[in-house]
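Moderator note: this is an archived Q&A kept for reference. The question asked for a predicted structure of one protein chain; the sequence and the answer are reproduced below.
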Amino acid sequence: MEKGLNRQIKQIFSVKDVDIRTYSPLTLAYIGDGIFDLVIRSLVVDGGNTSANQLHHRTSQIVKAHSQAQMAEAIADELTEQEADVYRRGRNAKSHTMAKNATVADYRSATGFEALMGYLYLTDQTERLLVLVSTALQRCQFDQLLS
């Protein structure tokens, strides 16, 4: 198994392993939102030094619910059975909040996408997470926003 960021955090801070099956889909989406944002921010910053406002604008175009919903659809055929199940659980989770500028369908799909990102992160499948994000960025042509 890879030694991803999550594994390193657990080792350095002496955090005990938890059975990931005990996490709700919204918990997976919570951490998935953060890790996906970090990946996109890293790519945007690697695209070149520019103003913080411009960096934020580029990032927000990709991390918004509508874009995440498009990305989820773009990689649906790439998901394993387990990954598809995590996505469905996240998509079908009943959230008490709603994104400001998203349809209900986009918001739910984005929550499923974030749950998948969270699952992959927490199971130290960093390479798989990055491959799926890369595939989604290319298929949705969001990779053009990164440079």
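Archived answer notes: The CA atoms of residues 70 and 101 lie 15 Å apart.
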